[in-house]
Each structure stands twice: as structure tokens, then as C-alpha cells.
Amino acid sequence: MATTPSPAGGKKHADSLQPVWSRPVQFVKGIGPKRAQLLHELGIETAADLLLNLPRRYLDRSNIAQIGALLEGQTVTVVGKVAMTGVIKGGKTRFEATIVDGTGQLSLLWFAGWRFLQDSLKKGVILAVSGNVTYFHGFQILHPELEILEDWDADDLTHTGRVIPVYPSGETWRIARLESRNLRRVIKPLIDNAETTIKDYLPQAVRDTVAQPSLPWSVAHAHFPETADDAEKARVRLAFDEFFFLELTLANRRSAIDRLRDGRACPPTATWARTIVDSLPWPLTGAQKRVTSEITADLRSEHPMRRLLQGDVGSGKTVVAALAMAQWAEAGAQAALLVPTEILAEQHHHTLTRLFEPCGITPVLLTGSVSATERKSRQKLVASGEARIVVGTHALLSEGVDFHDLGMVVIDEQHRFGVAQRQKLVDKGRRPDLLIMTATPIPRTLAMTLYGDLDVSVLNEKPPQLGRVRTVWRGEEAREKMYDFIHDAGARGDLTYIVYPLVEQSEKSDLKAATEGYEALCARFPNRRVGLVHGRVKAAERLATMERFYHGDLDILVSTTVIEVGVDAPAARLMVIENAERFGLSQLHQLRGRIGRGPGESICVLMLGAEPSVIARERLEVMCRTNDGFEIAETDLRLRGPGEFLGTRQHGLPEFQIADLLRDSILVEPARKAAWEILKADPRLSAPDHQLLREEWLRRFSTRTELLEAG
Questions:
Q1: Could you tell me which of 676, 686, 687 has the C-alpha nearest to residue 253?
Q2: Which of 134, 164, 129 is CA-nearest to residue 148?
Q3: Superfamily of domain 271-301+314-438, CATH level 4
Q4: Is residue 391 packed enough to be buried (19+ CB in 10 Å), middle (13-18) or exposed (0-12)?
Q5: Which of 24, 251, 337, 369 could pair with 410 as two cysteines, CB 3.0-4.6 Å apart?
Q6: Residue 519: what pLDDT?
């Protein structure tokens, strides 16, 4: 278990920290018990939480333009009162609001997305609007950036005559009557004497090393900056802190594992691993040999292995994992592979069955769809230890699945599992070795943030037997040409994938469905053998269809994205992805990875069902330009952001309030270095100058025991 920090001397950390920072939010002037109860719903428990709820933007009211002095082509911010609103029908229906400020009037126009404005932009409402000034029968701004102001008090410098904060708003804030104006009145007194009432928890040595301003200055200027530059400097310091405390937690978790010697060294037996290698139809790549050596060194250590294995599609991760699992299985223990979906479990089980056949071992499959009788039978094999290799979905985590001697855990597509789920399987053994695999290459800064407690191995080399894949995108006008591609592929003996985004037609979507596509292709190619798989096909039938395709008993496989991972048919050299503009970049890359598994050139055709958006066009261009998974991952992260990139939220990992993994990526490495160096020198943060640091760490992470204690 990781060393969870605790306050020294039995003293409550709220008493030893500075009064403002640790003050319960209900005792902040202007809050009170009722408002505090609402703020608790937003995760705001203390004044510190309130102060770290930063403005979402700023208005520079020292530079507000007067309507009467506007010029065409200017980009301005104007404050005015709504004089009238209305929907104007004609060539294109639009919504118009007219504002006045005593010097003139300005029209605001919306041609789209305006319906929600009708209820909020009532006569008399005061607005701050920003945008480019145009002229058509008077000055106007099209689709302005908009802020509703509660009031406009020229005598109150908290709200005007300076750069002022505009805070995030929502239903809870409105119910609490803590919109921007009232929130400014609450926060201003908290930071008026910040230099004396707020102490910095970061040691001076860290601040000097990373060149960050002090906490009191940063909090004050994040809320009431004198300039936009000051606001950004303050935000960067507070973003750095978020990265720092997460890295401190990851470093704590890893150092606790490294201090323990309650793991087991796997006996140096590699007969089964050599048997598997000898049975492969091609030699291991240099990268596979290197990573296998790294993993084997971990297995021989008494420290439990904690390693992340990254590899692009087709790089051979499953073989590397099998070689590691074989070593524990040969030693008499068990190895378990956890995967997120049943179809992936079926495919991994199928692959491992082939790999372990020369060793006389048959892996056991445990999924939710296994019948109750069969599940009990397989659970007995697991509990007795007879099942050396076990593959399964979340079913492996359930009560009743007990291992006789679990020596190793492998988790595939880790981003679909949370920290707590991974720990639940690890806890079924006695400090088993842990190997986490991902087929989605993860950019360096994101990997350090998500998996900073793990050693990282990268398979950056593809087997030489893999052919080249050429990617093109085409519109509907090229459909006949695409059918010619399918015909020619069949004539050469090449197999074809046709991928659709939906199982069946939806009333809300114009996407072609796999079932309709299957019927159309059967009619178009009556002499070709066409199969269909999707998520609603029963597991046994789905696997049988894929087997037929793999062995060449089908010419065309029509599918949804269930074939995104795992189906390796070397003779498949053509893939057509319908409505490709609707797929994400990583998903397109994963799908494309199903072809090019044999020698020669393969072709991936991205068929568009509609004119692509700007972002969709960029995705398509990247797909056609490169097959490099890491370059694709970097682009995907930039286009979609970390949350969408990962697919699901990392359970147990904090949601950054201030830091942005893209915008602030340059902060990750120095934050990591500083955190790890501090914990290396003072593992329990017991030094006097680390007291505030330890207490702030507790404040931020004391409720996240799955992060503090997972190992």
C-alpha cells in the first residue's frame, strides 16, 4: 500500500494551514450555510476550493468602446442595455437584439443557434458583447461573444474601470445567487491581503527551479489581474500545481511499490516462451525482443512489475504479452488477461489458444455471456489452478472468480478501465506482476500524466511481413469506382472489409446501416461469398463468421466497428469505411490496422457520406498522409482534447480544473521532476518545510484513496 501522508502531531491540518485557505466555505463572508450546501454539490468545501474556481474570461472595462464612436472593421467590447429584440423572417430567419449605451445603438444578429437567447435577452438586460463591427443600415455585430451582466455600477471598482473576472455559471450558481457580480464581492475580501493571509505550500526551492510566482500573488492576480499577462502568469502557476500534486501522488504510489519486496520473482523458466517463438511463422522484431527482455527482467525481480506497453496496430503486443504470461504459467502460477469487450475477449482467447497450443495449454475464457453452468465449470478451473491462462471481461472482477495463484495480470485497452477496477483484479493475487497494454499510442505528456507511476515500453517497429497500406478518401460520386476495387480484389483472391458505423438504420440518422449494406453487396456481387458481423450477432456466430473470413471461406466481410481490434487476416488487402467523416481519427487508424497484415500493398478507401467539416477534413488528410500511430495520436489529441481522446474518464484521476493538457503540456515534465525529487528526498514529507505541502496534498487527495493506495 502506498504511504498516505498524515498531518504531524495529531493536529488538524485546517488549524495549521493559513486561515483563509483552509476556512470552511460556509464561514466565508457572504456565503453562509444555505449557499455552502449548494456549493458542496459543486465540490467546493473550503475557501481554497472557491479561490481555485477561476474566471472563465475577463472583461477589460478600462477599455470599453462607446457605440457612438464605433468604426467599421473594429474588434471591440461594448456594454449596453437591451432596448428591443425580435425574430426577423425573410431570406434567412435571424434573431436581432438592439442595445444602447447613451451614445448610440448597436444591432446584434444571430443567424443560427439563437433560440435559447430569446428567453434571456429581455428588454433592460445589460450585456457585454465582443466582436467585429460591420455596417448595414447601421452598425452591427454578427454572432457576438456575449456576457449578461447583472448590473453596471460605474462607481464600484470591483466591477468596472479595470480588468474584471467573469466566472463560470450554471444552475447551482444561479440558485445560490452567486453569479459573477456577487461572486466578485465574495472573493475580493479574501484576496485583499493575500500576501499575509495565504501561505505558499510549494517550497521556495521548487518555485525557484520552475520559475513560478508565489501562491498569494497568483491567487490574487488570477481573480483581479492588472493586465491580461498577469492573469495568464497566475493561471500557469495554479495549473502547474495541479500537475505537481498528481505527479506527487503517482510518485508516492510507485515508490511505495518499489520499497516493498512482497512480490515474487518468477523462476527463470523460459521453455514455453521459446516454444511459442519457435512456432511463430516469422521471427520477432528487434523491438519485440527488446521489450520482452525489459519485461523478463521485471519478472525476475522481487519488486512487482508495473509496466505500460505501448504499440501501434500490428506491432505485435499480444505476442509479447503471451511470452510474459508463458513464463508465469510454466512456473506453475496463473496469468489473467482483462479486456473491455466480449468480442475482444473472444479474439484474444482465439489468438492465445493458437499461441499456447504447442505448450499443451488451453486458455479459459470468462465473459458475461457464458451460461451459468459453463461459468461455474470454468470458475472451478480457475480456482483450482488448472487454468493457467485466463482471458475475460469485467466478469473476471466479479465475486466468485477466485484464482489459485495469480502471478501476472495483463490489461488491454487500459483507458477503458479505471484505477479501482485494475486494482480489483490485482488484489485477487499476491502482488502479481502487472502489464498494461494500449494499441492507442499515447503522446508523451499524456502518458506521464496518466501513467506516471509505470515503467514504459514502446514497440516502435512493425514486423517485416506487414505490407504497405495506402489510404485515399472519395465522395459518393466514386462509388462505382469503389465497386470496381472490390471486384478486382476478389479476382486477385484478396479479401475485403466493408465497415459501417451503425448496426441498423436510425430515424435520426442518414447513415448507411451494416445490414442494408450487406444486402446491397450480396445483390451486387452474387458470385462472391459475403459475411456480416456486428455487436448484436451472437458471440458464437460472430466468431464463426470471422473464422471463415480468416481462412478465406468468405470474400467480403461487412461489419460495424466490432472488427476494430483483433481480426488478423493476412489475405485482407482492401478496406472500405463508409461515412468515414463520422469516425474519430484513432478509430479510423485502428480499423485500418486490420489490413496490411500480409505482404504486398493494401488499400483503405474512406468513403464520405457528406461534405466533411473542417476538422473531419483534417482527420482524413492525416489518415492519407501517414500510417504513424504516434503522429496520428498527437493530431487526435489536439483535435479532440484529452477527455475525448481517451474515450472514457479515468476513474480515480482528478479532473483538472485549471490545467489543460494541450495548452499546458510544457508544465508536465518540470512538475513531474519536482514532485519525484521531493518525494525521493523526503518520502513521508516529514521535514518542517514540507508541512504545508503535505497538508495541501491531503486536502486535494484525501478522498481519492484509490489513487493514494492503488498498487
A1: 676
A2: 129
A3: P-loop containing nucleotide triphosphate hydrolases (3.40.50.300)
A4: buried
A5: 337
A6: 92
